[in-house]
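#lab-general

N.A. 3:47 PM
ok so I finally got the sequence cleaned up, no stray characters, all 71 residues accounted for. can someone with queue access submit it? mine expired

B.Y. 3:52 PM
send it over

N.A. 3:53 PM
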Amino acid sequence: MQERYKRVDHNNLELAITIDDPKTYTKPFVISNAKFKWIPQQDFEEQICVPSEMLQYLNVIANPAGEVTGK
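B.Y. 4:20 PM
back already:
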C-alpha cells in the first residue's frame, strides 16, 4: 500500500492510496483519492494513537460519528 500526499497549492492537499501487490493482483490500482481544503481558524484536537486511550476516542469521536440523526 502506498499513500501519496500532494500539496496542490497553499490551501489544498490531495491524497491517493494505491495498492500494488503483484502476487495477488495483475496491476496496481488506486483505492482512494481524497481532497482536503484548509479552513482558516479551524480547531484541531490532538489525537494520539495509544491503546490506553482507545475507549475515550470511541466515546468522544467514533461512536457519535456513527449515530443516525433526525429520528
